[in-house]
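We store sequence with structure; for instance:
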Amino acid sequence: MDGKQIIQTAAVFGMLAVGIGAFGAHGLQEILDETGKEEVFETGVKYHFYHSLALMMIGILITLKPSWRRLSLAAICMIAGIIIFSGSLYFLSLTGITWLGAITPLGGLAFIFGWILVFLAPATKN
C-alpha cells in the first residue's frame, strides 16, 4: 500500500468509527442495554478510532519516508486489528454471542505487531 491509499483507508475507517459510535449511542442503545454490552461496544469504538488515527499517521510517514518499508506492513496490521478487534467487539455487543471474545485478542496482537513495526521502521538502512 502506498501513502495515499493508507491515508484514504484511514479516512474511511475514521468516518466509520464516528458513525458506528454515534449509531451505538443513539440507534443501538436498546439492544446494548438488552445485551448488557454497552461498555464492550464503546471499547470497540475507542480502539477503532485510535487506530484509524494511527493509520493516518502511518500514511503520512510512508509518504515522507518511503524507504521505511515496514510501515506498509504496519498499516496492514492496523487494518486487520480494527476489523478483528473492534469488529468482534461490535458483533459480540449486538448479539451477546460470547465465543466471539475468543478472536478479539488476535486483533489486539495485530495492533501490537503494527506498533512494533512502526517502532522498527526508522531502523531501515538506505
